[in-house]
Amino acid sequence: MDFPERFSNLPAYAFPRLRALLDHHTPGGDVVHMTIGEPKHAFPAWVTDVIAENAAGFNQYPNNDGAPELRGAISDWISRRYGVSADPETQIMALNGTREGLYNAAMALCPEQKNGQKPAVLIPNPFYQVYMVATISVGAEPVFVPATAATGHLPDYENLPEDVLNRTAVAYICSPANPQGAVASRDYWTRLIQLAEKYDFRIFADECYSEIYRDEAPVGALTVAQELGADPERVVLFNSLSKRSNLPGLRSGLIAGGPETIKRVKQLRAYSGAPLPGPLQAAAAKVWADEAHVAENRALYQEKYKIADKVFDGLDGYMAPEAGFFLWLPVDNGEQAALKLWTETGVRVLPGAYLAQGEPGQNPGESYIRVALVAPAEDTRKALSTLRGCLY
């Protein structure tokens, strides 16, 4: 029996690789998980009440594009957060988590050719792994662009060769960045949108960490696109309740963009999508409409930023994250550091190389570890102190 070759060269996903690295070794202490970005703060207590009140909806097929109440709540949130009007009927679709949207948007929107050539998709390196798989799935070429300390931990798409830009169909960008916590400034978005206008490609703006930040809310791509008067189909926004509201299991995400963009994504979703059950859509609508719990959640992370800054004060190369909930810590070798930390202390972190592409010596993540700040503050303090004592 034959199998497709398109995915034959994919490396193992980050977490199976981590298990292969660590699990046959005995942890050196009580296990502390700081690998996966799974929020541990409490979600609003009333969420379960809303689900229970709407439980009869489990007896019905859910609205494929998102119930009107959910799309309306998302539209209102976009207006409050970004100062941009998005028609809930034509410019918004509810997602079953943003990973679905980040994948299916490429399927629905990436052309088979760009200027008569195989299309290129620009991907920051390191990156959220679905970007690469979506690119391969549509027969495009992934172009991995280093996002390193030298570039402010954001990819420098402007200085790519013109022959690459001429066949670029899509550029993925994550701000605040996973894993580095860097934030795209208004100037960065301006230059990227102008580049996209010049070379006629779409920007897939993954802003899932936008509500976790230190002082000022990160500027959004849709905000800048509106200020510039860009083509309304130019920027496609993705966000979710996972990080904002500590509800990764609710799987409520959004995609917003121009009417033609959303029309095409909806058409694909009609054939292949898996929408949220109705009771979960009802709960999600209430959560998108509430900001009080978001501010409380953000304050908890701001406390942990201060803890991390104190623990790593004076550490050469330490970069305090601007936003998000990861530390991107410099080490000599990420795999060796993760293994040492596990076997000597029981603290479990992710080697940075598992989030990036490149041969040894050329992988921009290989001299880093990613550390998730999702545990309660005191647990975080103890784990980070243990980590510093072991590795530095």
Description of the structure:
It is globular and about 55 Å long. Strand 5 (168-174), helix 7 and strand 6 form a beta-alpha-beta unit. It is built from 14 helices and twelve strands. The termini are far apart. The chain has a seven-stranded mixed sheet with strand order 2-8-7-6-5-3-4, sandwiched between helices. The chain has a three-stranded antiparallel sheet with strand order 9-12-11. With 392 residues, it is of the alpha/beta class. It has helices spanning 14-22, 47-53, 68-82, 98-109, 130-137, 162-166, 186-199, 221-228, 241-244, 259-272, 278-289, 292-311, 334-345, 377-391, and strands at 32-33, 92-96, 120-125, 141-146, 168-174, 202-206, 235-240, 252-256, 326-330, 347-348, 350-351, 368-372. Helix 12 packs parallel to helix 14 (377-391).
